[in-house]
Specification:
The complex is a heterodimer of chains A (about 120) and B (about 110). Chain A is built from no helices and eleven strands. The radius of gyration of chain A is 13 Å and the shape is globular. Chain B is mostly beta strands. The chains are: A mainly beta (about 120), B mainly beta (about 110). The interface between A and B is medium-sized, with 24 and 21 residues.
Chain lengths: ~120, ~110
């Protein structure tokens, strides 16, 4: 149980286009999902906290207008990278916190590798 | 916000030896400290965690210690094996469930 999927797993796009990444909790409901970005050989950096039915909370330094987050249901959160540029190329990972889980429990998705040409 | 520091950034040990990775955190409200193992291009895998009301936890070859007063926690791997080679991340989490990760330690176990 507690499986989180992401789609797509790998995407290549042209500079200036927008890319949508989906994060789904497959066998549980998640009131909260988190989005992280990981550059090569670096740590996971929390970008935002996504709460079902409300606006996402962004970490300091993360542009909310560039990284649009929607959490419309208890099993799906989406991250849209708008007007992507080469510096947005990174590994994006989501995690989900189950509704009935103990405190702090999170399950990670497999990640999406974004390459912007 | 929370700031998590992790040392060392790289660590090489002989197979069978022990490995120790240390982390410090800044936010006294943090109450949950997981450790993750990540292989290249894969998702982080939880290997052990500890909560703020516990000082030590052990699971077979892996143990974690926590010093709340000093705000530091450590991962101990004994009898290391080549398959332990990976990048290890510590994290600190508060009641809001946000995870703040350390900078990572690349562990190499030499056969």
């Amino acid at each position: 149980g507690a499986v989180v999927s992401q789609h797509p797993s790998w995407v290549i796009c042209k500079s200036g286009t927008s890319v949508k990444i989906e994060c789904r909790s497959l066998d549980f409901q998640a009131t909260t999902m988190f989005w992280y970005r990981q550059f090569p050989k670096q740590s996971l950096m929390l970008m935002a906290t996504s709460n079902e039915g409300s606006k996402a909370t962004y970490e300091q330094g993360v542009e909310k207008d560039k990284f649009l987050i929607n959490h419309a249901s208890l099993t799906l959160s989406t991250l849209t990278v708008t007007s992507a540029h080469p510096e947005d190329s990174s590994f994006y990972i989501c995690s989900a916190s189950p509704v009935l889980a103990g405190d702090n429990e999170q399950f990670f998705g497999p990640g999406t590798r974004l390459t912007v040409l | 916000g929370e700031n998590v520091e992790q040392h060392p950034s790289t660590l090489s040990v002989q197979e069978g030896d022990s490995a120790v990775i240390k982390c410090t955190y800044s936010d006294s409200a943090s109450n949950y400290f997981p450790w993750y193992k990540q292989e290249l291009g894969k998702r982080p895998q939880l290997i052990i965690d500890i909560r703020s009301n516990v000082g030590e936890k052990k699971d077979q070859r892996i143990a974690v210690t926590l010093n709340k007063t000093a705000k530091h926690f450590s991962l101990h791997i004994t009898e290391t094996q080549p398959e332990d080679s990976a990048v290890y991340f510590c994290a600190a989490s508060n009641t809001g469930n946000q995870f703040y990760f350390g900078t990572g330690t690349s562990l190499t176990v030499i056969p």
